[in-house]
Amino acid sequence: MKRIEVKLALPVVAPLLDVIKMLGDSLRSNLAAPIALQDLDPDFKAAWVDELLLAQNGEITTLLGLFDDEFFSEGIVAFDEGNAEPIVRACAAVRLHLRERYLKPLGDETLESGDIDLVTLDEPLRKAFMCYLFLATIQELIIQHLDESILGS
Amino acid sequence: MTTRASHTLPKEQVRTELALEGVWRVVVLNDPVNLMSYVVLVFKKVFGFDEQTARTKMLEVHEQGRSIVWSGLREKAEAYVFTLQQWHLTAILEPDETH
Questions:
Q1: To which H or E segment does residue A10 belong?
Q2: Above 80 in pLDDT, residue A129?
Q3: 20 to 30 A from B61, CA-CA: which of A74, B23, B33, B93?
Q4: CATH for B56
């Protein structure tokens, strides 16, 4: 089984985990990407939402599971064929929710380009944006090293 | 004694069923959050696109705000929209007027 281990800077990442946990709690009852189909049967739509929320919650639990005792003692997280897909999806969900909850003042063009001077942001916005970048980095690592595992599963 | 049930459908049901017939397009809409590499991965995974096709579709989404990624029967189109939602991409269905 292909596995990658990444050593993270504990003092940088640990403070971001509170933000991720809080957003994860908020996503327990909210879809990160609301259903845009207008003409779905209401009962059918409710069943979709239930199933999507169940999957989304499972993904976020897997993401948060990365930050276990080994992370807090060694700063190491590990990705493999078993967790790559749920984690890459959880990162997408939390990033979408970060935009919804915190990052809209930055504007979508700025968010897409990522061209922001962190020192100009106030503390809550800076922390949210660092979290946004951190989760993107995890996604890029997984896509770069474990995409074949995801495509083959 | 049994009575024979009527097989006449209510008008509203007939209208709905007719509206759901035909060919439907699955359209992925742009968002400013998801990474280009992530969208390419999702297109390859969900639709089985090769790298070039997935990149072309992703760039359509990015530059034009939307891309038609599949067309066919409504039921399967809905299943694709559901799968895209599982990957946190936003997708809609449109009737394909060319058929």
A1: helix A10-26
A2: yes
A3: B23
A4: 3.30.1390.10
Cβ neighbours of residue A139 under 8 Å, at least 6 residues apart?
A88, A91, A92, B35, B37, B38
Q: How far is CA A39 from CA A43, A102, B16, in A?
A: 12, 30, 10
Asked whether the beta carbons of residue A37 and residue B92 sit closer than 8 angstroms, the reply is: yes
Tokens of A80: 């493999």
Mean pLDDT, rounded, for A20-36: 95
What pLDDT, in 10s, does the model give residues A60-80?
999 999 999 999 999 999 999
Query: What is the DSSP track for B72-99?
Result: EEHHHHHHHHHHHHHTT-EEEEEE-TT-
> Are A151 and B44 inside 8 Å of each other by CB?
yes
State both tokens at A137. 């980095």
Has residue B82 been placed in a domain? Answer: yes
Tell me the domain boundaries of chain A.
Answer: 27-151
Tell me whether residue B78 is in a domain: yes
- Taking contacts as CB-CB distances below 8 angstroms, the residues of chain B near A37 are 78, 81, 91-93
**Residue A114: DSSP 8-state:** T
| Residue A114 burial by Cβ neighbours in a 10 Å radius (0-12, 13-18, 19+) | exposed
CB contact under 8 A, A143 and B82: no
Would B12 be classed as within a structural domain? Answer: no
